[in-house]
Amino acid sequence: MKYEGFCTDCGFKLESFENLEKCPNCDSSSVPCDYKDQVDVNINWHELRILCIWAEQWGHMQEKEGSIGASGTIYTIAHKIQCQHPNMKLPLTLSSEITSLKKILQAQDPNINITTNIKGIKNGKMI
Known about the structure:
By secondary structure, this protein is mainly α. The protein has 2 domains: 1-39; 42-126, no CATH class. The protein is built from 3 helices and 5 strands, in the order βββαααββ. A 3-stranded antiparallel sheet has the order 2-1-3, with no helix packed on it. A two-stranded antiparallel sheet has the order 4-5. Strand 1 and strand 2 form a beta hairpin. It starts with a strand and ends with a strand.
């Protein structure tokens, strides 16, 4: 199946933009991404982590100011990039890094109870 693009907020693949008013998966009315506009970028993983962590924090600040979904969009984009490079050990967002750390520590001792106030993590999972 050929897709025309994908939802900017959740990454859902869209067959067509024709008559599209909102994402059929997440109901977002954000402008979708068109596959014809895909580009390759040459960047160091550390630089990309810096950009993603700053964007993650910006997204949380936007939500405090009443904008809904800004950090969710950033997590979707970061996850998409992370999946393209599964051998890179360091996650792109702070929330992902803390979640990974929790998994490592709890694998060593399941009785370890770790809590955090970092936004984007709920019940030990990145949201």
